[in-house]
Amino acid sequence: MKVRKNGRPLTRYEWSEARALTPREHEIFEESAYTLPVDFHSWRRAFSQALADADVNIQQATALAGHASLAAHGRYLANSGRTRTLPEAALPKIQISLTPAGGFLGMGRA
Known about the structure:
By secondary structure, the protein is of the alpha+beta class. The chain has a domain at 23-85. It contains four helices and two strands; from the N terminus they run H-H-H-H-E-E. It has helices at 23-29, 40-53, 58-65, 70-76, and strands at 94-98, 104-109. A two-stranded antiparallel ribbon has the order 1-2. The longest helix has 14 residues, at 40-53. The radius of gyration is 26 Å and the shape is elongated. It starts with 22 loop residues before the first helix and ends with a strand.
């Protein structure tokens, strides 16, 4: 048994390969020309983005993901499509008028 400098037993375990990776695991855990390897933060980022996609409010999502602050949670959403989606209510209402023959007459705000 290994011992620390202070005489107490070392409780850390060292990584040892138990078996070779399967072809699917190679795709997931090793970098290729098209992908980056999956790690803990990949799963954490996916969870945070899933919470955003489910319309969970930011405070609750931060707590569920275990982030220390809203800023930390926001970093996990930096590449989320959800953060780039504008709510329909924020877009201006524009009316387009067409002539009976299908031609364009003009635009105006509603």
